[in-house]
Amino acid sequence: MVKIKGILKYSLALLFLLSSSMVMAQDNSGVTFEMKLSKPKLGLNERLRVDFVMNRDGDNFNPPDFEGFRVIMGPSQSISSSWINGVRSYSKSYSYTLAPTAKGKFTIKQASISIGGETYKSLAKEVEVTAAVDKPSDQMTADDIADENLHLVAEISKTNPYLNEAITVVYKLYVSPNISVSNYQPLDNPTYNNFWSQDIKVSALSAQNGTYKGKPYRYVTLKRVVLYPQKSGKLDIEPLSLDVTVDVPTGRRDFFGSRMYAQTNKTVSAGSRTINVKPLPVENQPANFNGAVGEFNFNVSTSKTSLNATESLQATVEVSGKGNLKLFKLPEPELPSALEVYEPEFTEGVRTTLSGMQGKISNQYTIVPAFRGKYPIAPMSFSYFNPSTEKYTTLTSDEIIINVIEGPLNGLNTPSPNVANSKQAVIASGTKFNFIKLTPNLSDKTVSYFFRSTKFYLWLLLPLLLIPLAIIFRKKRDAIAGDVAGNKVRKANKLARKYLSAAKKELGNKDSFYVALERALHNYLKAKLKIETSEFSKDKIAVLLDKKGIEESTITNFISLLQSCEAARYSPFSDVQMQADYEKASEVISLMDKQL
């Protein structure tokens, strides 16, 4: 008995060595022999297809016993061979159609075949048989199979962001290995109401391996978009819908053994998604907070700090970092009245990626001092909300002193020159005095004296006449300075004219033209409707214009201009279209001015 056990152990060890040598032979020779299942899980009333596929011709094929299944059809043999670019491709398969005999988990064991004098074995695979299904796979139509194996998914980076915090939506089309997609076209693109949106271009549609509900799939990224919610509460993201042409295998083969497919068109949708936007906290909110959300740096600098009067310098107010850079206003400097300040030149260097906006924005002010002296530029503050820390942060710049070296002094503060006391004592020289005639009869009609003349008295009274004028001028200047809303309106009007002029210069350059045109339209709205950029949405603009009594056709043209500016980011526009949009903008602004 002991001898038999020893022989058995020796036989098992020898068998293990032989199987290892077979695997090594398979790897070294490039021969493949594998078992493929139509599905890993099926109902009791469904059918299972098992294919044993090899890339070299072989003999002495030995199938497994298919425990737990009944062979309905098979083995059927198919062979395909082709030459592509001088390289031979060969495939041979043995196929079986099986019906399960009971519920449970069953193992389809190894099959073996002899190829080139070597024996190769397939790997065993497990199959799960469940209760009978309502619609067996052999009764399913091409549409049914496409429904089960094709899915469009919208993946959202964050479902509970803060107001003005960036979120990303990525649309992926998942395709099962059981089917193939030959074409697709969008049916309905989401409009993203109550969001600021920016599409991120998908450079190439490349398929990647992934999983969907635990099963292996191939997926393609179709669309990527970055959203900044402009309203708190529950907001809906509209679905993306596609019409997809699907090729579904029929289970039949043609004369040459190739699998036959049925083609069908399916409409898939990513489904409507709802996110909950949290409002920004009111507690500890700085008084100068202007809607900036993200993580930023703040800097105030000047091109020079020493100069002469009537020379110019540039003061730059800059915010850089990551966040909603296009959706808030930069703080404005408070400068002494002796410094003449011109309208700022706005510069934007912002790029939008899947993580949101990043870059910098700045206002550059040209400043010209009129008088000699030292003038301080007071420290400026900039506040933002950081969603990562859920706290407000305030950044403050340093005070900057502008030293005007040469130039006139400031007005009435001009000091009078010091006059030395030159009086001297009179020394008598004895009793010799010569009397001076006080009223001589000398006269020269050609000489006129300024003292006690008409001009003398006019100049003497002139400062008294200028005092009321100075008081009136001061009151008017204070009234203008105190009219904050009026100053904003005048500034926005100037900017609108400036950017409309800039748009005209950029005709022919699509990106620059539509950026300038959009700025002009937005600044015009600020001037007329007194709303901030963060409140912009086409629906709200239409409602506000309607309340102002603007005609419906004018509103429609204005909204279409905004839509053209948005569409220009990802669509080609001709020079003719740009010229038409510019003329349309001029006409619409003129009509709105008259109607308002």
Account of the 3D structure:
The chain has 596 residues and is an alpha+beta fold. The protein has four domains: 109 residues, Immunoglobulin-like; 136 residues; 117 residues, Immunoglobulin-like (Sandwich), CATH 2.60.40; 112 residues, Up-down Bundle (Four Helix Bundle (Hemerythrin (Met), subunit A)). 26% of the residues lie in helices and 37% in strands. Strands 11, 12, 14, 15 and 16 form a five-stranded antiparallel beta sheet that branches. Strands 21, 23, 24, 25 and 26 form a five-stranded antiparallel beta sheet that branches. β28 and β29 form a beta hairpin. The protein is elongated.
Outline the fold blueprint:
Blueprint: H1 2-29, E1 33-37, E2 41-43, E3 48-54, E4 59-62, E5 69-84, E6 87-100, E7 104-108, E8 112-115, E9 118-121, E10 125-130, H2 142-149, E11 150-156, E12 167-175, E13 180-188, E14 195-200, E15 208-212, E16 215-229, E17 233-237, E18 241-253, E19 259-269, E20 273-277, E21 294-302, E22 306-307, E23 313-323, E24 339-341, E25 345-353, E26 356-369, E27 373-377, E28 381-386, E29 391-396, E30 400-404, H3 454-482, H4 484-505, H5 510-529, H6 538-547, H7 552-567, H8 575-595
Parallel strand pairs: 2-10, 22-30
Antiparallel strand pairs: 1-3, 3-6, 4-8, 5-6, 7-10, 8-9, 11-12, 12-16, 13-18, 14-16, 15-16, 17-20, 18-19, 21-23, 23-26, 24-26, 25-26, 27-30, 28-29
Helix pairs in contact: 4-5, 5-7, 5-8, 6-7, 7-8
Task: Write out key terms for the chains shown.
596 residues; alpha+beta; Immunoglobulin-like; 4 domains; five-stranded antiparallel sheet; 8 helices; 30 strands; 26% helix; elongated
